[in-house]
DNA sequence: TTCGATTGTC
């Protein structure tokens, strides 16, 4: 008997385990009776080896597969105990794979562009031509490797040589267009469907809808979505709804997205975990974690839909973002121990990144060690987080060593990886090193993005090279990159710090971009810059403009304004503004207190100093470096009552207490 | 039920 491959399906039941075994035999032995018991035993052993977690295993003995005969053999748990050494040897002599995919044809197996082109050339020379299915399999494989452009080229050749392309070919070709942000070309292909007598189905429309979402053409996406329904072009399915939901979330319309989820439910479209995941993730990214959990609970308990690793990863990301570490570990425990869902590369990367952003690089390294132990392979994103972690701590040697080792790990740094290094070098004032890396981006065939440019601009301004910054800014625009609020913030801040407030102000007015002119962060930068340069009139005007524009100053805006006032000795005015914060619904924070405190100290308003210190103590706030220095100075000069010492020592930051200098 | 569509990391 020639058994060449067998499929196993494991079903875990409350009272035991039953194993469904599907044996695939070669065609010629189609009708043979029993399947051999050593194989059955081997199957059992395999299941034990894989810890019963594997629901589906593909057990390959030798060579090629074929056919189907299904036998279901319930196994008693006693038979799960293995005694036979024979079985062990059988297992050792065979290899098995956890891959539960059916064997792939050579058209689906292409692993490189060369493979694909060679195969294609061979195919089109055959007479008769292979079936369109074979061509589609090839296109699909290329698309899965993200070679959209090449896949599209082959599609065009297929059309040219007369392969009768069908709806599958069309949907793959349209997908390629859409993924390359060429959705209009996708619609052109849709038009050609009608010429070819191919009736586009819901798959094609879903792809096009997603293309519009990818290109941020949300209004058009909505129009298409409604048109499909109204004109009964096709019945939207769960993917259509989910794609539309994704688009709504992308534009910050979480509520409408949830509304659409309700609508699909009402219309009898079965909800699934993907639809929920999209909204849960969006809520997490928008820091609306409570709403995310509400939806999560609804999904699990009301709808009985099982969450998956993506659901948990989104929630963990949201919690990390809010530094809610206790809940992060609770959730990790829940997914692993209760639901047997293993964190994967992305989950681990998020954890490592969160530690890096907290400055806890050691712990990030430990996370990566754990993931490696668990058989997950860290990818470029994982290591980029670590590079960034080193850079944030100014550990540039470590950052560079890790970065340089990436290539030997077979990983290709992205622009984001480079941006971390640029940032690290700039913050360490190693502008030449930063410039060198900046040029390397292009040398490696990558394109610097607005973050790269903004980071370099910030570095150049910081070392006072305003001319070079100007040149780089022009270069950035000549590359077709549109500066965003962040870029402008960097430039305005840079100009102000180089005592060019008027220049900054005129740039601010010159741009006249609505987004820039109504960004509280940009305003705050300008107000701070003006204040620092002693141009209080400008700062006041800008601050006043805010109310005119209906913009709400945030806690930082107040702080820079208070600081500006204090800098000019207008402590009373600063105090009034400080008092106004609470009633404006923007209560002062630790930083605000420190700013005002310095103003009082400089003005020798010691009664106010004492009152403020008491308040800070009541709120468990602490002194920052400059306020502490000023306080110590005043105590040394004998200006402050020594009775305040105890209070002050309570408010001293820990770092300062530990390293007396 | 052997070719197509939706979700998470720097």
From TrEMBL:
Transmembrane segments: none annotated. The keyword Amino-acid biosynthesis does not apply. Keywords: Repeat. The keyword Repeat applies. PPR repeats lie at residues 201-235, 237-271, 272-307, 308-338, 344-378, 379-413, 414-448, 449-483, 484-518, 519-553, 554-588, 589-623. InterPro entries: PPR_rpt, TPR-like_helical_dom_sf. Pfam families: PPR, PPR_1, PPR_2. Belongs to the PPR family. P subfamily. This is Putative tetratricopeptide-like helical domain-containing protein. It comes from Helianthus annuus.
């Amino acid at each position: 008997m020639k058994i060449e491959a067998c499929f196993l399906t494991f079903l875990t039941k409350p009272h035991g385990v039953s194993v469904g075994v599907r044996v695939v035999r070669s065609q010629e032995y189609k009708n043979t009776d029993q399947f051999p018991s050593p194989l059955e035993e081997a199957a059992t052993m395999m299941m034990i080896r894989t810890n019963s977690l594997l629901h589906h295993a593909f057990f390959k003995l030798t060579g090629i597969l074929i056919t189907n005969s299904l036998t279901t053999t319930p196994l008693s748990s006693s038979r799960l105990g293995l005694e036979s050494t024979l079985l062990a040897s059988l297992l050792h002599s065979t290899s098995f794979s956890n891959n539960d995919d059916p064997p792939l044809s050579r058209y689906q197996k292409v692993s490189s562009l060369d493979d694909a082109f060679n195969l294609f050339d061979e195919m089109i020379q055959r007479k008769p031509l292979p079936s369109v299915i074979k061509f589609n399999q090839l296109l699909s494989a290329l698309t899965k490797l993200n070679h959209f452009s090449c896949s599209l080229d082959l599609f065009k050749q297929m059309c040219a040589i007369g392969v009768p392309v069908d709806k599958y070919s069309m949907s793959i070709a349209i997908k390629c267009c859409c993924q390359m942000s060429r959705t209009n070309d996708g619609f052109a292909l849709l038009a050609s469907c009608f010429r070819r007598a191919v009736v586009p189905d819901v798959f094609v429309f879903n792809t096009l809808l997603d293309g519009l979402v990818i290109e941020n053409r949300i209004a058009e996406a909505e129009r298409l979505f409604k048109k499909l329904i109204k004109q009964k072009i096709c019945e939207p399915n769960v993917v259509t709804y989910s794609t539309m939901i994704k688009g709504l979330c992308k534009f910050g319309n979480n509520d409408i997205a949830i509304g659409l989820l309700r609508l699909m439910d009402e219309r009898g479209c079965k909800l699934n975990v993907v639809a929920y995941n999209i909204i849960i993730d969006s809520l997490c990214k928008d820091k609306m974690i409570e709403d995310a959990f509400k939806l999560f609970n609804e999904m699990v308990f009301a709808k009985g839909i099982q969450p998956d690793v993506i659901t948990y990863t989104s929630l963990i990301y949201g919690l990390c973002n809010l530094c809610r570490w206790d809940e992060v570990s609770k959730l990790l425990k829940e997914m692993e121990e209760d639901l047997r869902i293993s964190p994967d590369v992305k989950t681990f990367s998020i954890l490592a990144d969160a530690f890096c952003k907290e400055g806890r690089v050691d712990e990030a390294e430990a996370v990566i060690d754990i993931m490696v132990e668990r058989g997950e392979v860290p990818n470029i994103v994982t290591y980029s987080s670590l590079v960034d972690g080193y850079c944030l701590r100014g550990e540039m040697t470590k950052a560079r060593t890790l970065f340089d080792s990436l290539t030997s790990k077979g990983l290709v740094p992205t622009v984001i990886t480079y941006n971390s290094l640029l940032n690290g070098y700039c913050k360490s004032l190693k502008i030449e090193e930063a410039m060198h890396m900046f040029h390397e981006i292009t040398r490696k065939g990558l394109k610097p993005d607005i973050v790269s440019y903004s980071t370099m601009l910030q570095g150049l301004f910081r070392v006072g090279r305003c001319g070079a910054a100007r040149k780089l800014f022009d270069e950035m625009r000549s590359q077709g990159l549109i500066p965003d609020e962040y870029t402008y913030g960097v430039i305005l801040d840079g100009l102000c710090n180089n005592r060019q407030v008027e220049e900054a102000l005129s740039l601010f007015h010159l741009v006249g971009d609505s987004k820039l002119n109504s960004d509280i962060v940009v305003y705050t930068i300008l107000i701070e810059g003006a204040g620092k340069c002693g141009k209080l009139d400008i700062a006041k005007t800008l601050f006043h403009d805010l109310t005119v524009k209906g913009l709400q100053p945030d806690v930082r805006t107040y702080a820079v304004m208070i600081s500006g006032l204090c800098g000019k000795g207008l402590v009373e005015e600063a105090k009034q503004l400080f008092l106004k914060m609470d009633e404006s619904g923007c209560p002062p924070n630790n930083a605000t207190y420190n700013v005002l405190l310095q103003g009082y100290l400089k003005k020798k308003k010691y009664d106010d100093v004492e009152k403020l210190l008491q308040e800070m103590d009541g709120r468990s706030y602490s002194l920052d470096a400059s306020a502490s220095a000023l306080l110590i100075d005043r105590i040394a000069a004998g200006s402050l009552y020594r009775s305040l010492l105890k209070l002050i020592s309570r408010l001293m930051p820990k770092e300062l207490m530990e390293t007396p200098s």
